[in-house]
Amino acid sequence: MDIVANGIRPDHQLIFNMVEPGARVLDLGCGTGDLLHFLEANKDARVQGIELDERAIYECVRKGLSVCQNDIESGLAEYPDGSFDYVILNQSLQEIRKVYFILREALRVGSRVIVGFPNFAYVKARMALFFGGKAPMTPSLPYHWYDTPNVRFLSISDFQEFCIEKGFAVEKASFLCGQKRITLWPNLRAMGAIFLLSWREGQKGWSDDRFSHRWRSRR
Amino acid sequence: MKTESSGTEPEGASRSVGIVETKYMTIAEPPQALKLESGESIGPVTLAYETYGALDPDRSNAILVLHALSGDAHAAGYHQEAEAPGWWDAMIGPGKPFDTDRYFVICSNVIGGCKGSTGPSSTNPWTAKPYALEFPFVTIADMVSAQRHLIDVMGIDRLLCVAGGSMGGMQALQWVASYPERVRSAIPIATALKHSPQQIAFNEVSRQSIMADPAWRNGNYYGIGQPERGLAVARMIGHITFMSDQSMEEKFSRRLKKERFSFNFDANFEVEGYLHYRGANFVKRFDANSYLYITKAMDYFDLSGGRLINDRKVDTRFLVISFKSDWLYPAYQSQEIVRQLKQKQVDATYCELKSTYGHDAFLVELEGQTTLIHHFLEKTYRGERNGNGYRR
Q: Min CA distance, B376 vs chain A (Å)?
């Protein structure tokens, strides 16, 4: 991912803009902790990371961050409801199998969720498929078909539809093509998207869920 | 806006703390006594301890390092004329993760032990004979309460950190459970909130081995000679559980001590020779009754079910470390600690380090621990110094 002049990735900058000062933030799959560190230093956020890679955790601790080694799918279970103001799920949604479950869990432990993902319907991806007849490779989808960690291939329109269907309110959405913000025809022109989600009024779909029951009975 | 000051890396410039000496402090002198969890009390109690580095004028840089089952107060540096350094010398010293240029490091021998602190081999002042089995049962909480007296006498209100592996990790956890407001951070390594049946079973076999030795004489062997065979076997069992299948393969494989089998029951394999050597060495330096008491204290320890973090607001920061090949204190036990911390919204960092050394890793697998502990402490120290503690 490109780095802009002030040393922050454009997707990180968009997420940064969405976070209120002083907020409690959990980053699922925080990598080497650049975003969390930036939020802690410049938004006075109280931050916590979850990351699987041992070397990445070293980097986080080097930056003074608190990180727990866990995979995304099981890392949320122990957090009480409303532990965070924001749960960030950036560039890993497409690698997750239980997408709805994770988002619901994220909206249980956090009031809002910030989701960032690559757009599979980006114009160059469409062209690669339509004209080249090949699985698309773009800067935001940089993998060959045989070594991609991605298991979900979604477009911005797919995700918007998903949010309506599942009861997520889209509070904000920003779209990126490289360093450029996209406002017109994002599903065609954007390589990636950042969504700020919360539950739509009266939804809270997790209340009938067996996983949260398990968690609550344990408390 | 805060900026991150890049800390100096500990690697490279680390040195030894040099020649050190064990000191002694006596607490709970009559009419005082140390009240124990069992309901009994004991006093006076002597604690053997060592310190490294200098205490800040505001006494905010003290770190208490806690030893494992067979450890002692000698954590770093060298005793006069001694060849081997203290048990955690790799981690404690100038430029090392527990940087004695910056921190004041304390290590004390646990009560019930035999390395200078009051234990079953100490003389009972009321009878002028060794306590032996008259020694009251002590728990991990009792060990910690004795340490708290030591810290009190040193005039330290709040420790920057409590850290230790295995039973040392249990003590670190107990410190947070007993005195959360007195610990700024905790580093429990390769440890558990409670022993599993498997861990208790290994300890029980070790205890039975000691008690089955006729030389044990119900604990009254002082002046006669201790149950060396039983204690040696207990230690051999210990050493098997400290290693991993892979580390044993690498260290010994099926190599023979001599070229061929002897066709008798002498030690033929190198692994046998190693265990014999370890056992024989151990009986020279450790008291069998202490082994019984301390293993029991470990088995009784249980901070599961929400007892680690009680209802008081705890702002202790945690760094929890486990090792992949450690089957004696498996990673799931450390993860259980982390689960408790998450539930109570306590600031926690957790990492399972790659290592093939088994439980021994906490003493020998240095790279990951060095990086994590160095930076974790630095952040904790800076937070404390800046007075901007971690809001909850």
A: 6
